[in-house]
Amino acid sequence: MTGRERATAVRPFRFGRAALYRADCLEWLRRQPQRSVHAVVTDPPYGLTEYSPIEQAKLRSGRGGLWRIPPAFDGCERAPLPRFTVLTERELARLERFFLDFGAALLPVLVPGANVVVASHPLVSFRVSGALARAGLERRGEIARLVMTMRGGDRPKNAHREFPGVSVMPRAMWEPWLNFRKPLEGRVQDNLRRWRTGGFRRISPHAPFGDAISSAPTRAGERALAPHPSLKPQAFLRPLVRAVLPLGEGTVLDPFAGSGATLAAAEAVGYASIGVERDRGYFELACSAIPRLAALEGPGSRSGTMENHVRASPHPPRRGAAVPGRATGAPAKR
Fold it and tell me: Has this prediction a pTM greater than 0.85?
């Protein structure tokens, strides 16, 4: 890491109540004070294989590698997809070791009762879940993002005419987000009083937060603001981020920040947030994308309402020391 890059790991990019660090998340977590984070919402690389420098170079050059570059469909360019079916047993074992190390580094930084919500994929979620549980996090189920993607549903390769009525895998209609919690200290009510954690924020006094959120694929206009291969829509992230702080107080962490979409969602609902991203290209992308994504009108924006089944907070957001709407610490343009 260069001197300028080390400085970025200390002095983050800031926008509103969001702070984004360029650093390796495991190294960054090990430097943080204990019991300083109240929730985690993140969409990690699965063992870092598809986000290694070699695979990222293939993705950015359009050559694919571990990434499947789908053809255009009906005039629309489709997002690249990781080929989890090509991971070897050795790579899957590495994936488990990585998430075991990640969980061990994360656990001391969380306050008791903190929610940890991790995006996954049906082909690898059981390995990720097992590793995080062994690290000491308490599994609390899954939150389903209900979305139809281009994954699955294909006929047998090179035999589609012979077996036209067969799909090798079911067509993907949902995406699992693993739900964990740091073990409580005492009862839920004790954690709520002391740490402001221990549950999920209700939609209203009469409606609890549910474990399924309807979601369209990320729209082209949103991708244009943040062209990241794993970008999730604000219409999905804002309800989810709002829910992980049961009293609307505390700090949300995304240790694999990517495009900064989680931080933008937190900013939109009035929460403080921290992101960590080690890839220089994605860090610089996030610095420009966070203000743009946070400014999108619609579900969870301060002038709008929550889409699907979540309403915006009735409480005005508290502002940090940074001037709202003004970004600071952005990397110099070359």
Answer: no
